């Protein structure tokens, strides 16, 4: 693994008209999350640009969402999913259950901190404001 070479490969896959989606997918899915974070840092130092922003610009739809999610640390990816689940009218209850019921205590603490960092809001307050009844109580317990 060489973060600098991977940053070059991603830059080359995105330069010019269009992008080499297959190369992007192959490279990103063959690296661990820790390695992907290192690639983001190498990309920033080599090109002075944010890799995630460039990926968002080059890609679209569900493929963009997948790739961008993979590039973020797990807690930030979970924070984004929860933010989307409670945004607007209605709540994606399955998403909230899937994330909050399947994470360890440490992962929940990391998620709460990431949510606060990314959105400058309190996760528990946002969930309490968007849910009700026994479901709300269960989610609050899971957040504790």
From TrEMBL:
Localisation per UniProt entry: Cytoplasm; Melanosome
Principal subcellular localization: cytoplasm
SMART domains, A to Z: ANX (SM00335)
Transmembrane segments: none
GO CC entries: melanosome; mitochondrion; nucleus; plasma membrane; vesicle membrane
GO MF annotation, one: phosphatidylserine binding
Keywords from the named record: Annexin, Calcium, Calcium/phospholipid-binding, Cytoplasm, Repeat
GO-annotated biological processes: apoptotic signaling pathway; calcium ion transport; mitochondrial calcium ion homeostasis; negative regulation of sequestering of calcium ion
Top-level taxon of origin: Eukaryota
Similarity section: Belongs to the annexin family.
Function field: May associate with CD21. May regulate the release of Ca(2+) from intracellular stores.
Record PANTHER family: ANNEXIN (PTHR10502), ANNEXIN A6 (PTHR10502:SF19)
Domain-level remarks: A pair of annexin repeats may form one binding site for calcium and phospholipid.
Protein name: Annexin
Organism from which the protein derives: Penelope pileata
The encoding gene: Anxa6_1
């Amino acid at each position: 693994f060489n973060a600098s070479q991977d940053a070059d490969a991603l830059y080359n896959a995105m330069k010019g008209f269009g992008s080499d989606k297959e190369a992007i997918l192959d490279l990103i899915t063959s690296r661990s999350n820790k390695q992907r974070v290192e690639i983001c840092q190498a990309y920033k130092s080599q090109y002075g640009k944010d890799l995630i922003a460039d990926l968002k610009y080059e890609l679209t739809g569900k493929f963009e969402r997948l790739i961008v999610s993979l590039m973020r640390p797990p807690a930030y990816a979970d924070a984004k999913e929860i933010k989307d689940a409670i945004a607007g009218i209605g709540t994606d209850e399955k998403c909230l259950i899937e994330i909050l019921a399947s994470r360890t205590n440490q992962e929940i603490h990391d998620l709460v901190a990431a949510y606060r960092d990314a959105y400058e809001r309190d996760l528990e307050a946002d969930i309490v404001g968007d849910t009700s009844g026994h479901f709300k109580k269960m989610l609050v317990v899971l957040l504790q």
